[in-house]
Amino acid sequence: MSTSGYTRRQFLRVSALAGGGLLVACGGGGGGGGSNPNNPQPPGNGGPSDAEQFTVSEFMRIGSDGRIHILVGASEIGQGALTSMPMIVAEELDADWDLVTAEHSPVAARFNNPYFGGLLQFTVASATTRGYFDNQRQVGAAVRQMLVNAAAERWEVPADSLRTERGVVYDDLNGRSASYGELAESAANQPVPSNPPLKDPASYRIIGQSKQRKDAAEKVNGSHIYGIDVDIPDMLTAVIARPPRFFGQALSVDSNAAMAVPGVREVHTIPSGVAVVADDYWSAEKGRQALEVSWNELLAGRTDSNDTRGEYSFKLNLPGLPIRVDGLVPVAQLAAAENRSADYFFPFQAHAAMEPLNVTVDYTGSKADIWTGSQSPTLDKTFASLILGLLPNQITFHTMSSGGGFGRRGNPLADYVRDACHVAKATQKPVKVMWTREDDMKGGYYRPAAAVRVGASMDNQGNITAWTHRAVTQDVTAALYAEELLDTLAEGQLPPLKELTDLETGMPYDIDNVLMDAHLTLKPQMPSLWMRSVNKFTDVFAQETFIDDIAVSYSRDPYQYRRGMLAGKPRLLAVLDAAAQASNWGSTGGGRSQGIAVLNHWMSYVAQVVELSVSDDKVITLHRIVSAIDVGTAINPDLVVAQVESAVIFALTSVFYGEIELQDGVVQQSNFDDYKMLRMFQVPQIDTVVLPSNESPGGVGELGVPALGPALANAIFAATGEKIRELPLKNLGYTLAEQHPA
Amino acid sequence: MLLLRNYWLGLSAALALLVSGGALAQSPLFTPIYEVLTHPRCLNCHTLTDFPRQGDERRRHDQLVMRGEDNHGAPTLQCSACHQEQNVAEDKVPGAPHWGLAPLSMGWEGMGPRELCTVLKDQSKNGGKDLQALLKHMEEDPLVLWGFDPGEGRTLPPVDHTRFVELLEQWVNAGGPC
Amino acid sequence: MFTIRVNGEDHTVDVPEDKPLLWVLREDLKLTGSKYGCGQALCGACTVHVDDQPTRSCVMPISAAEGHNITTVEAIDQQQIGRLVQQAWQELNVPQCGYCQSGQVMAATALLTENRSPSDRDIDEAMSGNICRCGTYARIRKAIHKIADEQL
Hints:
The structure holds three protein chains of three kinds.
Chain A: E1 12-16, E2 22-26, E3 53-56, E4 60-63, E5 68-72, H1 81-93, E6 100-104, H2 128-155, E7 163-165, E8 168-171, E9 176-179, H3 180-187, H4 216-221, E10 236-241, E11 249-254, H5 256-260, E12 264-270, E13 273-278, H6 281-290, E14 292-296, H7 305-315, E15 321-326, H8 329-335, E16 338-346, E17 358-363, E18 368-373, H9 377-388, E19 395-400, H10 415-427, E20 431-434, H11 437-442, E21 450-458, E22 464-474, H12 483-488, H13 497-501, E23 513-521, H14 536-553, H15 558-564, H16 570-582, E24 593-601, E25 604-614, E26 619-630, H17 637-656, E27 662-663, E28 666-667, E29 685-690, H18 708-720, E30 735-736
Parallel strand pairs in A: 5-6, 10-20, 18-19, 22-23, 26-29, 26-30
Antiparallel strand pairs in A: 1-2, 3-4, 4-5, 7-8, 8-9, 10-13, 11-14, 12-13, 15-23, 16-21, 17-18, 17-20, 21-22, 24-25, 25-26, 27-28
Helix pairs in contact in A: 1-2, 2-3, 9-10, 14-18
Chain B: H1 2-20, H2 31-37, H3 40-43, E1 53-54, E2 59-60, E3 73-74, E4 77-78, H4 113-121, H5 131-140, H6 142-148, H7 161-173
Antiparallel strand pairs in B: 1-2, 3-4
Helix pairs in contact in B: 5-7
Chain C: E1 2-6, E2 9-13, H1 21-28, E3 47-50, E4 53-56, H2 62-65, E5 69-71, H3 80-91, H4 101-114, H5 120-127, H6 137-151
Parallel strand pairs in C: 1-5
Antiparallel strand pairs in C: 1-2, 3-4, 3-5
Helix pairs in contact in C: 3-4, 3-6, 4-5
């Protein structure tokens, strides 16, 4: 087995297996495969088999039995990355899909997402498919070519006389064939072609098919291993007592009572709090309850929701940092028949993923293994190496499937991984750091509060001649530019600020004069973070409800009014028309009202219609929610639809209930009783129309979130005349009806 | 906002009480008992609805919890799915033996003292209990006892259990006047 | 010491009497299919069957679990309806992050065992104790109806 040639990089190592076979595995660059040696993967997901396995290029292993195991650089957070990414590879590879399995890759540069300049493995911004699409196709096509070349060599025929289908290379002229499994060993020695030909989308047979999720079986029988399920020998469990206000410091600790709890082993003060380390979770939690800590809160956060609202409302009056400037807004305003504006306010919100945060660290002083569900393994690992004093290649980072992410597990500051590393460093024993639901709910890194002022100028026909949009919110991406972080990124540059901050609302309408500006407030003591659809949730809500405000006052149909301003945007028009058609726009009766909203972002397009009725006591009955989307090439249409359904529910929860309140720095919510989630009995009929497209794939995970709120608010406006200018709706007295009353 | 709403809820409840006859002359022996029985700790499960309520704001129980045929929940979402024989999770989850709703016939919501008193004594509605049996129920039933010791974070009825039993004894000894 | 019967087998564990069943299952018996989500019976991720009734194991003290038959998601495929639920969940791509699905599967299996043709209202009443943050509710409903319509 050769390791020479430009194709064989230094991270390939050859090791003899006990059984006498040869395994060529990925090594170096941050550790082996993502599987956990103490939680062996169940069969069917890359588990050990008797077949020999060959690493063909650095991204997959092909067994002599034809099984193909693909390493995925993106994180599985529920969106289906471990299904859709291998589908892309398998398409170009012409693999037999039934023989394909996948797992998370090691944390290594070759698995970085091209969308982030190839610098990070970072599963945020709906960037997995659109970031990796070309690269995964090339991987598949390259390996296919290597298999073909191996067959050509074996049969001494020209490679271009061969064809491939479902994991087999055919030599039709001579009536012979060889499976990928048979060819794997010799294919591994072929040079990797640099520019393999890619398929014409017309000949796709995997991409565009609604395949079943590869992880579905394990996720319904309890065998799927999440970070919280990791179990390694002699592992201790820790919980951390944290200050009541963000960034308070432990001043003095009385651990006597805590240490007296059976099972409690150690108590350690770490930068973020005091860790109670015990034999098991229950002992640790009881130890924490017995712990007495006095906190130094001199530098602690004192954010107060009411004060924040006042401060932001004031800043709406001041010019901000320009984000988009088209034409001459002041001139247009002077010439307008009418100028109007509206102010909006949105609260902090918690991601509240179902799996509370947790990290397991096995640190020995000279090396470490880390297991956690993460959307940001590269930066997590970087911080871990800083705290543990290890080189990156001394750390094996096992990216686990996340029990939900929504952005919380993609913290560039790696808060929960840093905490766990501090605990591991203190205890020097294998330890799982657990967050309770309360820890998670009160743990900060929320969707930041925001205020938005939108303004419009109209001629006397109600045509919009100027548009202004001012946002006041925390800059959740400033952290990426923190100096210390830059120092740790040895090479390369971060993407341009504009791309990361993403404050452009995507205001799509044909308006000549546009001024968008923003105040990016810095509140270092109020940890905030992106949450599914980031600022689109707030900005698009303001924009799309204000459009209806104008349309209705000029007696224009909200759908037609939007149509009239989207003449040059065929893909937006198409989703708008599709949503209107699927929802029978304008032809509902029986006290039902509809609202519509549109959005183009993440290279994708969505229009949503909410149909509802509102009782006199503000009980909202949701009748139907229709989404029409154009996401370019839909890799797995059923999973695309699933993401939209998911986003609709996620948005409904945010719109009706989503609010974290702070009083003098103290978070008031703690669990699902005071931070409510939509439940089964409140879920309406949800229909999703996917428009066919061969365009490049766009983002899907967040697409269904931002327009849902304004579509809903517009329907309430249509039903009641009430203009919704703040969220959540519970604060305005609205409740959700039972879908199927007894 | 929330505080304000609770204030209004409280005020309107007080007004409703006035209108429904709470302030009208009743048996003075029953009036303090009435105030206990209409406290949320009792009333939340003595509902006239097909579901229980929770909290001092008496919101409809989350999770679409239902009364069910035997007053212990939907067939596969029983009260005992969550409620243990004692409070758990640092009192966050209340519990007592045979946790469940009182029968519909013993629903007291919206009743003034006279009506509630009458219903309470009506053996066709109260499970065939005479005054002595009622007293015993109020003295010993673990669910009743829970109401007077509901755990951290829950308001208490206006009098403690010992006093409540004294008041009941006086009322029973007087023949249960309404 | 407590002896509990889980998935047909007796297990004796030396744990404090207030340790919740969930953590005994996960830590002492290494059955990690039942998940921790809230610790207050608010989300249903920890749902197991106790004498065939869906029960939130995160609030059930081990002392209360003695003497009962406990079934976890790891053994629900021993029941025909459990298998059907697992199959339908896969066919319809119900799970997303999947973290709540052990609990959903346990709740749905109990529902369909008790009621072979549940109405939408029945589904609401049986399943509203289980939160899914990924919002797979519509597919859960569809899967339950599919099993009832086609297989029961």
